[in-house]
Amino acid sequence: MSDNNIQSPEEAIQYLLEWIGENPNREGLKQTPTRLMRAYQEYFKGYVENPADYLLTHFEEVEGYREPVLLKGIPFYSHCEHHMAPIHGIVNIAYIPNKKVVGISKLARVVESFARRLQIQEKMTAQIANCIQETLEPQGVAVHISGVHHCMLGRGVNLKSTELVTSHYTGLYQNDESLKKDFKIQC
Question: Does residue 58 carry a catalytic annotation?
């Protein structure tokens, strides 16, 4: 099969298998194009979602609660936009409510929706924080992500124990160093 005759994603995967030296017709690979297409639909389902929609169901009866709300240890799984290699790690989110709070599962769903796209961690960190800020309109948002990038584990520099750490702050968290410090300590 030449690259000029590719008509479908499955054919592209067959071509890739041939390109790396495999036989796409051998027993273990016959269904790989179909399986990979289904996997990619799941890996990249964030493209058909609007993460802000998860935050539209919120509660305004918070009886004046104005302290930080922190959800930590949210696992994520993504793929880098440079090599399509896996990225996985942990997200911590804090926000200071103004008049609205959300169920904590909604914050995890926002993370999942942004993670299920081709990403760079820096952009994803800002996207999560800005989505929460724009939708809930809290007094401030803090997002901290620690991620392991497989593009560095299995190729290139082959570093086995490195993590990329990124943070993004809005509102009160941007300018109040004591709030930032408390958030970092709690993470």
Answer: no
Is 90 exceeded by the pLDDT of residue 70? yes
Q: List the beta strands (DSSP E) in the chain.
A: 69-80, 86-96, 118-119, 140-149, 164-171
Active-site option among 10, 22, 49, 83: 83
What domains appear along the chain, each with residue ranges and CATH number? Answer: 3-43 (1.10.286), 59-186 (3.30.1130.10)
Query: Is there a catalytic annotation at residue 150?
Result: no
Find out whether 13 and 36 touch, Cβ atoms under 8 Å.
Answer: yes
- 149 tagged catalytic: yes
- Mean model confidence pLDDT for the chain: 93
Element counts in the chain: helices (H) and strands (E):
7, 5
Active-site residue flag, 82:
yes
- pTM value surpassing 0.85: yes
Q: State the DSSP string of 111-122.
A: HHHHHSSEE-HH
